Amino acid sequence: MEMDIINHNAAGIDIGSRSHYVAVGQALEDVKEFGVYAQDLTEICDWLKSYGITSVAMESTGDYWQNLFTELVKHGFEVILVNGKFTKHAKGKKTDVKDCRWIQKLHALGLLTSSFLPDESTEILRTYCRQRTNWIDSASATSRKMQKYLKFLNFRLDVVVKDVCGLTGLKIIEDICKGNLDPKELAKHRHYNCRKSEQEIEKALHGNNRVDFLFGLKQEYDSYKFYQKKIAQCDKEIEKFIKEELKKDPNKKNLKTTAKPYKRLNKNAPQIKNLNQVAFKYFNGVDLFAIEGMSHATVLSIMSEIGPEGFMKFKTAKQFSSWLRLAPNNKISGGKVLSNRIPKGSNRLKIALRQAANAIGNLKDTHLSDFFKRVAYRKGRQAAVSATARKLAVIIWTMITKKVQYQPPTEYLFLDQKRKLGIVKRIRKQIDKFELKPEELGIATN
């Protein structure tokens, strides 16, 4: 049995941290090793052009592929970026030379498919948003350390306030770092929304005042302020970049949607002015905030991780949910389903949709919350989060690709209600078909 060659001018590249192995054929003389410097990457492109190569396949090894990928695209090559698990060597001793020849062979036979890559503008926005997420993670770690030092000092602020880094907590910590250790004075920083009284807060702030713990608390507080400053800078860059992108299309300027005052902003939400209207324009008239459970952070994740153009790369909603790893991976043998678990692995968009699904589970009397509770009743909350996240992915894909608005059913119908409506519909159809009258049916009319 022979296989047809699909890509005649194909090359395979095995990516490494210090060198790249490039194969333009299956003979040993068709393989050459190159370095990783800028000059070496240019030499790779020139060497491939000398052999008439038009299409290149390469593994997505760590972050080492990005510079070479950019250089190849710049020189006009068709680049296929492949997940490493699809290019594992079949049998025998593993070497870099064998790997690049194996990748070249698979690509020539058309057995490799490219991974999803966003467009350039989405990639830039993704860099800003991911950097912002990294700063938030660092700030949360610092918050936990501040809480630890407060416990060591016997300042049980965590008992009397809901959030140590809230309005009341931060003012008290700032005053402690300035040297004010009087419980009565510290309790005066109580915010009017705090449930505990000043007297109870005062009782929790009688500490041992150890100098070493105070020093550690002050350093962590300075770090927390530094991270918050970096987060604010990221928000400014994100808002600036989105506005520049919207200016490129003048048709989006007049788009406007309804206000969403019920969408709350927490302290970690992106501080972008009127993100509701900005997102509506960014997705060309599609209102994602109309979906229950969608927060500002979730919408920003959709904008930065895939973008409006990225949805078009998936032909169906099933392909999109499968890429997110929210669809079951059915394994069937002999007509029997061996496994239907959701595949391992996740990306930031999947995490954002699961968090939105978890928030939907706490809502009442909505279309999606009813769906969540029905699944949770049968299979548990964890399965309900996954199922609702997949449903969200299908809804979002449909809205953006088909340019339709979110229209949930006005009334949820259970299975017996659906059956009843179906029976009534069939009966009415038969009555109209045979032109039956009430008297013939034995129905008394007054």
Task: Write a short abstract of this structure.
The protein has four domains: 10-108, YqgF/RNase H-like domain (Nucleotidyltransferase, domain 5), CATH 3.30.420.140; 121-243, Helix Hairpins (Orthogonal Bundle), CATH 1.10.287; 273-402, no CATH class; 413-446, no CATH class.
Brief descriptors of the model:
Nucleotidyltransferase, domain 5, 446 residues, alpha/beta, 4 domains, globular, Helix Hairpins, two-stranded antiparallel sheet, 5-stranded mixed sheet
Estimated helix fraction: 40-55%
| Content-based structural category | alpha/beta
Give the topology string: H per helix, E per strand.
EEEHEHEHHHHHHHHHHHEEHHHHH
User: What is the number of domains?
Assistant: 4
Quaternary structure: single chain
The averaged pLDDT comes out at 89
- The separation of the N and C termini measures 81 Å
What is the makeup of the main sheet? Answer: 5 strands, mixed
Tally of strands: 7
- Strands ordered across the widest β-sheet: 3-2-1-4-5
Our Rg estimate from Cα atoms comes to 30 Å
Portion of residues in beta strands equals: 5-15%
Unreliable stretches (pLDDT < 50, length at least 5) are none
Molecular shape: globular
Q: Please tally the helical runs, counting DSSP H or I stretches of 4 or more residues.
A: 18
Report on the architecture of this protein.
Helix content is 52%, strand content 7%. It is α/β, with parallel strands linked by helices and 446 residues long. The chain folds into four domains: 99 residues, Nucleotidyltransferase, domain 5 (2-Layer Sandwich); 123 residues, Helix Hairpins; 130 residues, no CATH class; 34 residues, no CATH class. Strands 3-2-1-4-5 form a five-stranded mixed sheet. Helix 1 crosses helix 2. The longest helix is centred in the middle third of the chain and has 37 residues. The mean pLDDT is 89.
